[in-house]
Design a protein that fits this description.
This protein has helices spanning 35-40, 45-48, 66-81, 96-106, 129-140, 228-233, 253-264, 294-306, 312-318, and strands spanning 5-12, 50-59, 86-90, 113-116, 150-154, 157-160, 165-166, 175-176, 184-187, 190-193, 216-220, 240-245, 268-273. The chain is α/β, with parallel strands linked by helices. The chain has an 8-stranded mixed β-sheet with strand order 2-1-3-4-5-6-9-10, sandwiched between helices. Strands 11-12-13 form a 3-stranded parallel β-sheet, sandwiched between helices. The chain has a two-stranded antiparallel ribbon with strand order 7-8. Helix 4 runs parallel beside helix 8 (294-306). The two termini are 38 Å apart. Bound molecules: succinic acid.
Length: 319
């Protein structure tokens, strides 16, 4: 039987990070190794799939931008359109969750797209990158991976792109889906599926890589925070603001007044929570992000505004 044809699209990150010191897990250069070196570090990769690999970028993902998301989506889409059975994107973990959700909303495919990263650089003792990459290929090659949207694979877990979040700054088990749990597990070359994403994604959304991404900012609520920063958003050209509020997306009296003023001035405001989990409903006339983190709410708000949607709460209730 022929192996599935998978493309690895390398973008940089710690999975391709290098340091002269094997114990270094924080001081290293992200994106230093090229994709051929990454693949060479994974024994058995060619037994899982017929792999083609390309270097798309070599960035630290803190430098990713909406323009980067769009060009990455364009490249992944063209590989799928050209007949790839699945695509694996190696990516820095810092903003992996944002790229994953963006791709989940804009790609037009049923075939698996898996984002993978690592918390320890390739040169570190006990580097997690090679096994994560082998696991990502195992998931992308699995016959039941199709139709689950974009997946995130790290530390044996298979997470859905909508809900996956980086929840720890250092440890190899940095990723979780606090509201939804894992969609499956991959271990010792075997995949155990446990769920499918409930919300529409990929081919079932009206969004594409060509959907404009107008600027949307994120501001957080905290004790004694100044409302001046919220008011200042109105003069930055931003079309939207996600409020990462305290608790249930709440805002102090001053902040609430400033948020309402922004909304009246034509900036779309969406309330989310800074807590890391939970569900924020609409309140006080401002839409709620539901279970989306502030960073993912920003991605959806950009797409909804870019697609000209008037019903912002409807977009958050749907996607
Ligand atoms: C990055 O996000 O590119 C650096 C950090 C990481 O990959 O863990």
């Amino acid at each position: 039987m022929s192996l599935p044809r998978l493309c690895i699209v390398a973008t940089g990150g710690t999975i391709a990070g290098a340091s002269a010191r094997p114990q270094a897990t924080m001081a290293y250069a992200a994106g230093a190794l090229d994709v051929a070196e990454l693949c060479a570090s994974v024994p058995g990769l060619d037994e899982v799939a017929d792999i083609r690999a390309e270097q798309f970028a070599a960035i630290d993902s803190k430098n990713a931008t909406p323009a980067f998301w769009q060009s990455l989506a364009g490249r992944v889409q063209s590989l799928l359109d050209a007949g790839a059975d699945g695509v694996i994107v190696t990516h820095g973990t810092d903003t992996l969750e944002e790229s994953a959700y963006y791709l989940h909303l804009v790609l037009k495919t049923d075939r698996p797209v898996v984002l993978v990263g690592a918390m320890r650089p390739a040169t570190a003792l006990s580097s997690d990158g090679p096994l994560n990459l082998l696991d990502a290929a195992t998931v992308a090659a699995h016959p039941q991976a199709a139709g689950r949207g974009v997946l995130v694979v790290l530390n044996h877990q298979i997470l859905g792109a909508r809900d996956a979040s980086k929840t720890n700054a250092n440890r190899p088990d940095a990723f979780a889906s606090p509201n939804a749990g894992a969609l499956g597990w991959v271990q010792d070359g075997r995949v155990a599926w446990m769920g499918r994403p409930e919300r529409p994604h990929t081919s079932a959304t009206p969004f594409t890589a060509a959907t404009p991404l107008p600027p949307v900012e994120v501001l957080a609520g905290y004790a004694g925070g100044s409302a001046a920063l919220i008011r200042a958003v109105g003069s930055t050209g931003a079309r939207g603001l996600v409020w990462a509020g305290t608790g249930n997306g709440s805002a102090s009296a001053d902040a609430q007044e400033a948020l309402d003023g922004l909304e009246r001035g034509g900036v779309a405001v969406v309330r989310a929570t800074r807590t890391g989990s939970g569900c924020v409903a609409a309140s006080g006339g401002l839409p709620g992000a539901g279970t989306l983190s502030p960073w993912k709410a920003r991605v959806l708000l950009m797409l909804a505004l870019g697609a000209g949607m008037d019903d912002i709460q409807g977009a958050f209730d749907t996607y």
